[in-house]
Design a protein that fits this description.
The chain has seven helices and eleven strands. It is α+β, with helices and mostly antiparallel strands and 291 residues long. Helix 3 (172-179) runs parallel beside helix 7.
Length: 291
Amino acid sequence: MEDPVLTLENIARWDAPGESRDAIDAVESGGVLYLPRLAFALFEDETRLLRPDLLADGVRNISFAGSSALKGVAGGAQTEAAVVKMMGRFRAQSTELVSGLFPAYAPHLRLAPTSLRPKQVSSRRQSVRADDRRLHVDAFPTRPNRGERILRVFTNINPHGESRVWRVGEPFEDLARRYLPRAAPYSAWKARALHLLHVTKSLRSEYDHLMLQLHDLMKADEAYQRDAPQRTVHFAPGTTWVCFSDHTLHAAMSGQFMLEQTFHLPVAKQYDPGASPLAILTRLTGHALAG
């Protein structure tokens, strides 16, 4: 397996990375961009926010959708205001980074919520389908996206020197060839029923169905999780990484205190739409997937 991680040593600022053909090719082929000199700087009073009990009971992560739409913080108004300030700054800097690295994306990016993740990943107890310590690609049972890309910026803000440890897996097309023959067939009437029953927020396309099948099949396959081609990557504190999480096979194994920003991008606005999961699955199935 070729190295799925491209390290960009020259980027140390969020606002002036410059377009990089290597970065474009790497991220659009399902790789991870690793920026070891790009840190998200915390103000002195923000370090007090890095504690597990900042997270409200019953939620996995803190979410900020802009303006005053903050969810998941345990604390009063002063604490919430500090979290909004920090997450809003990360949101803005991530947008600058992505727009600089991939300027053709910039007019077409749609912001999704920003997340702060104070929990220790290694101690989570979840079902097989929900366990992100298993190799997977992002696909969501209630939120069909019909091929729209999921671009994510991550930064490790751990104050105790702990790395964020990932496993990064084989190319997406290799995964698809492995599991498509085992995927259950798509049912249009089931998709309509799920939408009418408000199980899904919009109509699940065949693309969404196949992505969920790949997600579930690979997570449930113990032999695959153990033996599949993969690389373990340690993202140190003060570093940043970027990938299309619907394309990159990844598993978060350990780490605590991370910020993440999600962007959505229409598949047609990639530099090479033919490299997308939608294009790969269309080619392998031999028919349009209503993406």
